[in-house]
Design brief:
Layout lengths: L3 H11 L5 H16 L3 H14 L6 H21 L3 H14 L12 H16 L10 H7 L25 H8 L4 H13 L11 H16 L11 H9 L4 E6 L20 H11 L7 H12 L3 H4 L3 E8 L11 E9 L3 E5 L3 H15 L5
Antiparallel strand pairs: 1-2, 2-3, 3-4
Helix pairs in contact: 1-2, 1-4, 2-3, 3-4, 4-5, 4-6, 5-6, 10-11, 12-13
């Protein structure tokens, strides 16, 4: 393997004086566990390194670290016979290092094979995945433009903010009859959730409104606002997933069948379609252009997937709030003729996780 990961970590650790020692120790520990073929132990250490790198002020270093984590997770997952998950991680690594190669004498055949499959998957799309990026990458780079303040309209409580409202909130809101009282109520509502009232910004509100704007841009369906769709609702509650993608539904396959839930890619077709639209001088794109963009983003089966697909958002444990009794939660959205578009499959882990997050958000604590 080209010595990109180690070089990145050296510069990363030197740039983090407060946590360099702990990060260095964790990274060295992970490398030793990989060398000793302790794949599960290495995965746990990589998770710890991931969490430790998320300290405030380390955003630039964190961005450098992400491909390193993806590479070593890919190695571990391949050797744990989780080939498809391994391929997703290697694709993420190749996103940042498209010309990297793997040392066949240093890594197992399973890891090498998964790495090469990831390379072929990237090449088959006809463009670098960095041209679109994952949901997490797209959200990190997303900027809200214009004023985001909510107007005190009567139907405000039926909009995206509904995921934050308790039954008491809804009852109190419905009793208000004029714009002034509604405006005052909204001001108090957000102020009660301000994590740092001594500062001019309300970080909780800013984050929520950024999620709303992102969901509206990428998850709109027909005439339905993006933040009010099933995917939009999950995004408002959970934020961007660790990774996400689609798998075509075979003819005759039951939408309730759990087969393939972890067989996903990294990219979301709507991002490709939106990017194609943004590049259009007229501000419009034809259906054939949209299908081409989707096909390039999702692979050779995208034409069929445009009619019937499963989209799965994977949230690893570092993105799950305290109280969720799972190490990973998958949110599955099914699109199928006669069934619906991007319909959330309401299984127990998904519903339980959403309930826990709702409780935290309604109390003014981010997920």
């Amino acid at each position: 393997m080209k010595k990109i990961p180690s070089a990145l970590l050296v510069s990363l650790l030197l740039a983090l004086p407060l946590s360099a020692a702990s990060l260095g120790e964790l990274f060295q520990k992970a490398k030793e566990e990989v060398k000793a073929s302790k794949w599960k132990d290495a995965m746990n250490t990589l998770d710890a390194l991931d969490t430790a790198s998320q300290s405030p002020g380390a955003e630039a270093q964190r961005k450098q670290l992400e491909p390193v984590l993806a590479f070593y997770r890919g190695v571990c997952l391949a050797n744990l016979d989780k080939t498809e998950e391994s391929q997703v991680q290697f694709e993420s690594y190749l996103d940042a290092n498209p010309n990297a190669s793997v040392d066949r004498g240093m890594y197992s055949k399973k890891a090498v094979d998964a790495f090469e499959k990831a390379r072929k998957a990237v090449a088959s799309r006809g463009e670098s995945p960095s041209g679109m990026g994952s949901l997490a990458t797209a959200y990190r780079e997303f900027r809200v433009t214009g004023a985001a303040a909510e107007a005190p309209k009567e139907n405000w409580a039926d909009g995206p903010v509904r995921v934050l409202l308790t039954n008491d909130d809804k009852r109190d809101w419905s009793a208000l009859s004029d714009p002034v009282s509604r405006s005052e109520w909204i001001t108090k509502f957000w102020a009660a959730r301000d994590p740092k009232p001594e500062t001019p910004d309300n970080e909780f509100r800013d984050e929520f409104e950024k999620r709303v704007a992102f969901a509206d841009k990428y998850f709109a369906q027909d005439e339905v606002r993006g933040s009010l769709t099933d995917r939009g609702t999950v995004f408002l509650l959970m934020g961007p997933p660790t990774y996400a993608g689609r798998k075509p539904i075979s003819t005759g396959e039951d939408t309730a069948d759990s087969q393939g839930l972890s067989t996903t890619g990294r990219h979301d077709a709507e991002l490709a379609a939106a990017n194609a639209l943004s590049r259009s001088p007229s501000g419009k794109i034809s259906s054939s252009t949209q299908n081409t963009a989707v096909s390039n983003s999702m692979g050779t089966n995208a034409v069929d997937a445009a009619n019937n697909w499963r989209e799965v958002w994977h949230y690893r444990k570092e993105l799950l709030p305290a109280g969720v009794p799972y190490t990973q939660v998958d949110f599955e959205f099914v699109t199928k003729k006669g069934y619906g578009k991007n319909v959330l499959q309401r299984d127990t882990p998904a519903l339980q996780t959403m309930d826990i997050v709702k409780q935290k958000l309604r109390a003014g604590r981010p997920s």
